[in-house]
Design a protein that fits this description.
about 65% helix, 6 helices, about 80 residues, 2 domains
Length: about 80
């Protein structure tokens, strides 16, 4: 009981209530219902989300990604 008061005192009432609410939603399954993962096939993803006419199957998508790869900030090969 003493440690629970210590947590509320250190972290604040808002954080404590939020984490209690989150854990209850997680345990009851409400989070999984709300954020239900959807399954999608590769063909469905390519046809719905890739707007280039040149890409129509997995192999051409892979070749396109390899040819047009961009580095986030810098090329890792420059560091070596």
């Amino acid at each position: 009981m003493r440690s629970q008061f210590k947590i509320v005192k250190n972290m604040g009432l808002f954080w404590t209530l939020f984490s209690i609410k989150y854990e209850l939603k997680k345990k009851t399954g409400l989070l999984q219902k709300r954020f239900n993962p959807k399954s999608i096939t590769n063909e469905n993803f390519i046809s719905n989300h890739i707007k280039t006419n040149q890409i129509n199957d997995e192999e051409t998508l892979l070749n396109y990604l390899i040819k047009n790869k961009n580095f986030f900030f810098f090329d890792y090969q420059v560091l070596t």
